[in-house]
Amino acid sequence: MVGGAFPTKEDLDFFDKFAEIVDGAELSRMTPNVLVMAPKKIAFKNLQHLPKTTNLDKNIGRLFDIFIRRMIQAAGGDLENTCYWLNLRHLDHHGTDGYWIRHKTYKMANGHKIIELIGKNWQSENNNIPKVGLDQTMILSMKVFTKEGLDQTPVMKVFAGAPRCDENCSMNTITQEMDETNMLLDVVGLESIL
To answer: Which domain of life is it from (predicted)?
Structure first.
């Protein structure tokens, strides 16, 4: 985890100095346990004044990290157990999904994860997702899944062969069930589910 706590005043000042969510980053309740930030433009500014003590990727990753922690805090969640979805795409590329962090907790995927996804795309031969640069305005959207109004019984979801974190399912439960499944697969001579 990069930031072990919700954003400090220093973090928020850093974000405000170098980024802007155009028209604000308010969450609205979609269901009793899902809060949504509708797609909004994120514009980077004053990049020439970013701290020179670290590289550009880490500074931009820090901006995304502060944003994620701030949104989880605004939803009344916590950084260890609250799952979220985050999508980042270029304003002019309506035909692509962009970059996704899906149903992860902050502990599993912080703001630097989106930078890793962009970096992997820049290095790949795949042209399905257009390359993006910081001089371009991008669209950011987010969903935060809270425990309010949920049955507290852990639920497992399987998608593409791997368990996913549900709103109220801890990583310990996922890890335990994956280990049990892998042991069973090993007994019958099959490969791991991952």
So the answer is: Eukaryota
